[in-house]
Amino acid sequence: MKPRLFEKYQKEVVPQMQQKFGIKNIYAVPRLEKIVVNMGVGEAINDHKIIDKAAEDLATITGQKPMIRKATKAISNFKLRLGIPIGCKVTLRRTKMYEFLDKLLNVTLPRIRDFNGVSRRSFDREGNYTLGLKEQAVFPEIEAGRIQHTQGMDITFVFNKSSKEETFELLRLLGMPFAPH
Known about the structure:
Number of domains: 1
Order of helices and strands: HEHEEHEEH
Structural class: alpha+beta
Helix content: 25-40%
CATH superfamily: Ribosomal protein L5
CATH architecture: 2-Layer Sandwich
CATH topology: 50s Ribosomal Protein L5, Chain: A
Mean pLDDT: 79
CATH class: Alpha Beta
Shape: globular
Largest sheet: 5 strands, antiparallel
Radius of gyration: 18 Å
C-alpha cells in the first residue's frame, strides 16, 4: 500500500506543478529524493551513554536504525578527539520517507507550542530545505517524562535538481506550514 502523501503527490501535486511551471514531462516535475534527520550530540564527548540514548530516540522517531557519526578532526578547545562519536543520522527514502513526512506535517509540527509556521528562508542553492527542531519531545513516540537530555535535530529535505521556487511550491502543496512573510 502506498503512503497517503505519496498518492497526494502523484494525483494532486504533480498536475498542479506542471500547470504552474509549464512542465510538459511528468518526470521533469521536482520530487523529494530523501529526508536526512541529523542529531549532533556535543555532550557525548564526556558521556557515551548520551549518544546511545539519542540514537535510540532517533530510531524510535524515524523507524530506522541511525548511523553513528564520528569526529573527523581533533579540536582541543572542544575536548574533541578523532573518532569519538558526536552525532547520529538517518537517511529516509521511498515509503518510510513519505510516512515520516506525513507524521511530521500532521502530528509533530502542530504539537509545537506557539508554532507560527516554518521559515521560508531555509533553502540552499540547490533548492533543498532544512528544518531545525529544538527538542525531540515534540514527536508523539517520545515520552517527555523520561528524557534526560533535550536533543535538537536538523531535518533536511533533499530534492532532485530543482529551483528554490519549485521546491518551495512542492513543499507547500504537500502541506508544509510555512510562516507568513
